[in-house]
Specification:
about 220 residues, alpha/beta, 7 strands, about 15% strand
Length: about 220
């Protein structure tokens, strides 16, 4: 069934409760530091792009961002009971990896065209290790269609065993590093030339994220 995303305020109350709750949990379970808050645009639409090592980068960014964000998450999340409940309560937008979904694209474009920020992980899936993998062109396509600026965010410290270590009292460090907004070149041409240009813009996004993080996180964007 196609995903029907509503631009209503349906999730406002849920987000008003969930965001401070998760901020508190992250502070209890880890040592959180946020750098570059001055780089967050004060208003309007923009695309927030992050690296994605574990399950914990997206909720960290959503919890500590100055405003409530719309967010895209892999449909796999909706197959895991606990995560599915949280995603539904928050109102995240599910995406099928590797599939063209016109309804999903329309939902993301509608978010940005309505003047609101959107969070996406250009890699499309967790890397399970610090080194970044090549981005999919989807984020670049969205920027090309809307003309919004990109805000790169590098998250350092996320691991698959983060929660296990945190519950043992280790309080692992977690850093969210927000870079300066930037614009992408316009994409021209058709067919293969257009696809190549979109991929190059996606790689530009990843290089901006890489510049915010230690070398071991750069992966193919070293």
């Amino acid at each position: 069934m196609p995903y029907n995303y509503s631009l209503s305020k349906k999730y406002s109350l849920n987000r008003a409760i969930m965001r401070p709750l998760f901020r508190g949990l992250f502070h209890i379970l880890s040592r959180v530091q946020v750098f570059g808050k001055e780089n967050v645009p004060r208003q309007g639409a923009y695309l927030i792009t992050i690296n994605h090592v574990s399950l914990f980068e997206p909720p960290l960014v959503m919890a500590f961002w100055p405003v409530a964000l719309e967010a895209v998450g892999a449909v796999d999340i909706w197959k895991r009971r606990g995560q599915a409940t949280l995603a539904r309560l928050y109102g995240a937008i599910p995406v099928h990896r590797g599939e063209y979904d016109r309804t999903l694209l329309d939902a993301m474009l509608a978010v940005l065209n309505s003047g609101r920020p959107l969070l996406i992980a250009p890699e499309g899936a967790r890397s399970h290790a610090p080194g970044m993998r090549q981005a999919h062109p989807g984020a670049a396509y969205i920027v090309d269609k809307t003309g919004v600026q990109v805000v790169p965010v590098g998250v350092v410290g996320g691991t698959d065993d983060f929660l296990r270590r945190a519950l043992r009292g280790q309080r692992p460090p977690f850093e969210m590093r927000i870079g300066q907004p930037f614009s992408l070149p316009l994409v021209e041409g058709r067919g293969a030339a257009r696809r190549a240009a979109l991929q190059e813009n996606a790689d530009r996004i990843m290089r901006q994220i890489a510049a915010l993080m230690p070398a071991e996180y750069h992966g193919i964007y070293a």
